[in-house]
Amino acid sequence: MCKMEYFLLLTISSAIFDQTWCQNYSSSTLRPNNITNPTVVCENMGTLQNGICLCLDDWTGASCSISNFCPGQNLKQFTFPKTVLGQFASSVERCPPETTNAGIPQASALCNKTSHSFDSPNTVDCSLTLDTINADLSGATPEQKQNLAASTQILTSIPERLTPHNITNAAKITNKLLSDQLKTQNMDIAVSAVATISQLLNASHEMYTSVDHDAISVLTKTLQKLSLRENSNSLLVQPNVAVQSLKMQTPIQNVQLTSLKGQSDFFLPDRIKLNTGHAEIFKDNVDLQINITLTEDSNEVVGFVLYNNDQFFRSKSFQPSLDTERKVMSANIQENLKFEVMFTVTPTAVSTLSLNDFACVFWSYTKNDWSTEGCTKITSPSGPAVCRCKPVKNGNGNANANANANANFAILMAFDVNYQYSEALHWISITGCALSVVGLSVTALYQIITRKSRGGSPTLLVVNVCISMTVFYLLFLFGINNPVEHVNVAKMSGENIVPESDHHKYSDQGPCTAFTALLQYFLLLTFTWNTLYGINVFLLFKNSVSGTPSWFPLVAMAVGWGLPAVIVGISLGSTYHVEEPLGYRQEEFCWLASVDHNQKFSIKKPMFWGFVLPLLLMLISNTAILLHFSYKICRTNPNLNRSGKTSLKKKMMSSFSLAVMLGLSWVTGYILMITQEKNLKFILSVVFCLLNTTQGVQIFILFALRPFLNSNPAILNYLHAPEIGFHKKSFFLWKNKIPESNDSYKSTDGDSP
Ligand SMILES: *[C@@H]1O[C@H](CO)[C@@H](O)[C@H](O)[C@H]1NC(C)=O
Ligand SMILES: *[C@@H]1O[C@H](CO)[C@@H](O)[C@H](O)[C@H]1NC(C)=O
Ligand SMILES: *[C@@H]1O[C@H](CO)[C@@H](O)[C@H](O)[C@H]1NC(C)=O
Ligand SMILES: *[C@@H]1O[C@H](CO)[C@@H](O)[C@H](O)[C@H]1NC(C)=O
Ligand SMILES: *[C@@H]1O[C@H](CO)[C@@H](O)[C@H](O)[C@H]1NC(C)=O
Ligand SMILES: *[C@@H]1O[C@H](CO)[C@@H](O)[C@H](O)[C@H]1NC(C)=O
Fold this sequence. Notes:
The chain is α+β, with helices and mostly antiparallel strands and about 750 residues long. Among the domains are: about 230-420, Sandwich (Chondroitinase Ac, Chain A, domain 3), CATH 2.60.220; about 425-485 and about 510-635 and about 645-710, Rhodopsin 7-helix transmembrane proteins (Rhopdopsin 7-helix transmembrane proteins); about 715-750, no CATH class. About 40% of the residues lie in helices and about 15% in strands. The strands form seven sheets. The chain has a seven-stranded antiparallel β-sheet with strand order 12-13-17-18-24-20-21, covered by helices on one side. It binds 2-acetamido-2-deoxy-beta-D-glucopyranose (6 copies). The site of one 2-acetamido-2-deoxy-beta-D-glucopyranose (NAG) has 4 residues, from loops.
């Protein structure tokens, strides 16, 4: 309803504010599915997409009716929760607190695909560390190796607890286990090792900045070799990694591997489909697909490795800043055969992002970065991003072609953020703002005209508050909506260039940033002058005979106009770049940036330290002065009956009215920010909106209308209007409570009769 509310709320409290508030309901409400096959009904919370059911991980089959899990089970002394087929369950029992591995599961069990129940559990020694395992591995017997593999899987089963050191160690261990496995063909070890790798891929991005990248490189190369195990046609799948090998029975030219979409993003055995050219071709609900085409028929071994994210491939040139993931596909051929790969990945279906452009790349182990050499983009205006790569051998590649050919492919996508540009101002806001502008201008004029009766300081302060607020309202009316809106249309370029980031950035065109800086300045200005007003009253009270010190107006001018400028300067200087204006401001409307890339309110953003924090300090100091002042006034027992002496209290209270009024509406804003209850939130937002847009009107009543009427009692009587004043009640209270006082006061305001 109210723009002011939108303005503050979206900025201050987007973290707390439901994301749903910002959504475009007309496009996001569930439309009835365009059911091409009306007989399909998805069970077990499966959702229909393009006539195909997308199942939860626990279910499979065309209508999600086939169970895909081992139910919870007690085995030996351990309890295992419900788990997806082919994955490891961690025991509910944890290592006791006094042990090295406190909190790590004591056991794990594999959910058996054929029996739909857990295999016999593996246990871990609660004092074992990855360092020890890494050291023990070389001399271990096959049985011991199997134990160590299982232990490594358990020790790495809580991704949040993995440190860079743990990841490096686990990578070294799994690399040794898998290299061994290539000779011994022990499947249990391979399954544990692949599960460990999947868990490593689930560790947080931050951890990967300081892992040993050589250990990771060696591991990815070993996985490539693992996918080419000669005597097995097998698929090893864990949530974040899949290894598929295929020994062709007859000479074949084409092999296609497809990972189908489910509701989760993870790889599951029944979603990974291998197709050797004769079987069905998967086109719908494809998450990723990779085709290997050999230049001649062959019956060699072909292998694929799929990674759910690119944590093992940390690029220097491509630095993602949005929370997107990139799947990495490795295609491998055993012999030094000529081949070509085509691959596609469906962009993440996040409604706030749309694909702007992409690059087809492979991982260069020599550069330790993505490279586009030998890859081309196949663009169609609306179709998926498709890539074709012809392997290029790296310099030293001939001796060991498989490990060195460009085998790890990915599509690096740059997205546009679909900003929900704010709507035009509501008429309530426009009316409120316009009335405020008029009220403030009249007040400023009135104060200037009647300045003689009051003295310089109060006039200076009120007039400055009026000016800064007037400018703020005008800026708000005309500048809050971003004049340069980016319409997101994919502009796929034919060139295959590695983008700098997953966020396609537009360089700044100026107006919105200028408006933001001016809004920040004039809003801070309003509050600075408001605080100075409070300080002025405080000084007046302290020196009730001599009045405000003579230096005050000068200092007030310097601080009043200077301090906000300094804050704006620091905010701009430290966060603004022409290529990346969104460090300083928002895109949806012209106001300070407040949230990090996770859409969480961040204290590192200028909204907090360049606005909320200074504001809070000023509000606190105003409140402190007000409390101090009220306390003193009660203590000094002013006499409110005697005319002439009442004036000071009146003046002082009216000066504080300003502080209270300004403070109140912003405090409402702050409460609004932390309120979760929907109804209260609505009421508060209406109150906030009214208080805010009509502040100028309130100032007009306090500083122009009321003094004017008070100095012309005839008009007042003629109109039979009740005295307009916020403090009437308080005066009555004090009148009854407080006995006489002989203090004499100087007037701060010009409204004495
Ligand atoms: C919401 O989405 C619909 C359909 O996509 C579009 O026509 C409409 O303009 C959008 N409304 C707003 C406020 O963005
Ligand atoms: C469903 O989709 C088809 C083609 O994609 C279209 O012709 C048809 O009108 C759609 N039906 C509905 C009910 O939207
Ligand atoms: C899984 O269960 C099947 C059938 O009960 C059994 O033959 C097989 O050995 C089990 N797998 C493992 C790894 O224990
Ligand atoms: C993981 O690393 C930390 C130190 O980085 C270490 O204290 C801890 O023991 C390691 N965990 C395991 C299971 O080795
Ligand atoms: C990976 O981590 C996410 C959260 O960090 C969690 O929701 C998910 O279940 C984890 N997946 C696996 C397979 O451990
Ligand atoms: C893979 O090959 C199949 C059949 O030749 C084709 O339909 C599909 O589009 C190809 N996929 C990619 C990603 O090129």
